[in-house]
Inverse folding.
């Protein structure tokens, strides 16, 4: 009987414990379900994770969001609805944070690209500038080539002119010798017939405005040294004034009386003396410095 | 007689078991909330950070909500509902963090826009300079 009672008692105890456990379960989880809104948060996170560009941009934040979403998805009893709402709220913000961070990172990466683009656009501009400069240089080169051709033609022309003047090209320049036939012996004024010869000189100087001329007067050894120096100077001046009258700028012309000291022939013979009585017009070679492009 | 005594004896373990059951119930469902001070502090710091980052300009709605949640948390503390207080505080913090994140995103986007505009302007200028040649 005692045994029976004891068995009864232990049965009752077991029942009570079972009821207690039952109560516990009933109290905490009547028909447990995932909280409302957790599916939406999961969908939002899935969308972020599926974006191949953004998904890799904020790995830490996405991992945190994943954990928060998983917590939010835990089934809860109806009595814990507010906890569910709280968890969904947290999860939603974590997902939003991950999205914002991914967007920030994306923008930063794009900035690098933008910087490169800017650099490229700057380079393009430089290239365009360089191309333009190159084109300009090419144009200049072509022009220079043209000028060279022109120069060649001019040189030919010059040679013809020199030939016409019956002059000689020397190191000092083109030397045109005006014989004493231009002057009456002992006098400095030009003979009337001299004009024809000098006209060609004037034409030459007109065509070559960059050339300067040096006019040197020379005599034979007849007469005193001083008078010969004076005569040679006056003859040179006479040629100069003729040129100035014909419109050649006086500044382009210099004169010098050399007297009897630079004979070109023997003063012993009349023929030689005649050769020594002369005016030399030296058309100076153009100075390279004065040359402008 | 014996019967009554036996049932009386049997009652005692039943009461004990029930108490244990209630105890389990209480401990399982309603863990006593710690003081939510750290959660409240966390929210305040997060709000302050967001504010300093310029959330007032770039994510004002988010910042305002974070402040509203913190106010709810403070009210819950007054009502001695510590569970609610801690939840509101945590929500306030995460909301403030979102405000900071959106502020950073907005700033980054603004910088990019400026750069794009700058590049466009430069390209235009260069093209104009090119035309002048």
């Amino acid at each position: 009987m005692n045994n029976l009672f004891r068995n009864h008692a232990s049965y009752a105890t077991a029942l009570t414990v079972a009821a207690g456990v039952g109560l516990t379960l009933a109290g905490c989880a009547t028909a447990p379900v995932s909280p409302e809104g957790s599916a939406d948060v999961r969908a939002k996170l899935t969308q972020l994770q599926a974006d191949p560009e953004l998904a890799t941009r904020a790995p830490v934040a996405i991992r945190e969001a994943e954990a928060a979403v998983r917590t939010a998805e835990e089934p809860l009893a109806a009595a814990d609805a507010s906890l569910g709402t709280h968890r969904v709220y947290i999860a939603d913000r974590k997902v939003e944070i991950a999205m914002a961070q991914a967007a920030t990172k994306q923008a930063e990466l794009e900035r690098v690209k933008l910087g490169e683009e800017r650099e490229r656009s700057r380079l393009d501009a430089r290239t365009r500038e360089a191309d333009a400069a190159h084109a300009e240089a090419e144009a200049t080169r072509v022009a220079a080539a043209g000028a060279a051709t022109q120069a060649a033609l001019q040189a030919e022309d010059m040679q013809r002119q020199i030939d016409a003047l019956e002059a000689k090209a020397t190191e000092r320049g083109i030397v045109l010798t005006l014989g004493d036939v231009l002057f009456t012996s002992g006098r400095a004024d030009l003979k009337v017939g001299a004009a024809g010869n000098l006209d060609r000189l004037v034409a030459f100087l007109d065509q070559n405005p960059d050339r300067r001329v040096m006019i040197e007067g020379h005599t034979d050894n007849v007469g005193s040294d001083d008078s010969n120096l004076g005569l040679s100077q006056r003859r040179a001046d006479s040629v100069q004034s003729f040129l100035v009258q014909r419109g050649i700028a006086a500044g382009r012309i210099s004169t010098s009386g050399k007297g009897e000291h630079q004979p070109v022939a023997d003063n012993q013979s009349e023929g030689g003396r005649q050769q020594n009585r002369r005016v030399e017009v030296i058309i100076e070679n153009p100075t390279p410095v004065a040359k402008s492009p | 007689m014996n019967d009554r005594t036996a049932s009386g004896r049997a009652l005692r373990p039943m009461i004990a078991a029930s108490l244990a059951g209630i105890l389990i119930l209480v401990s399982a469902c309603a863990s006593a909330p710690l003081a939510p001070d750290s959660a409240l502090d966390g929210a305040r710091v997060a709000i302050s950070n967001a504010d300093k980052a310029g959330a007032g300009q770039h994510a004002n709605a988010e910042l305002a909500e974070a402040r509203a949640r913190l106010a709810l948390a403070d009210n819950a503390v007054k009502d001695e509902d510590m569970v609610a207080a801690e939840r509101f505080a945590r929500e306030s913090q995460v909301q403030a963090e979102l405000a900071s994140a959106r502020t950073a995103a907005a700033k980054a986007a603004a910088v990019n826009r400026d750069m794009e505009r700058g590049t466009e302007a430069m390209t235009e200028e260069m093209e104009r300079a090119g035309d002048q040649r």
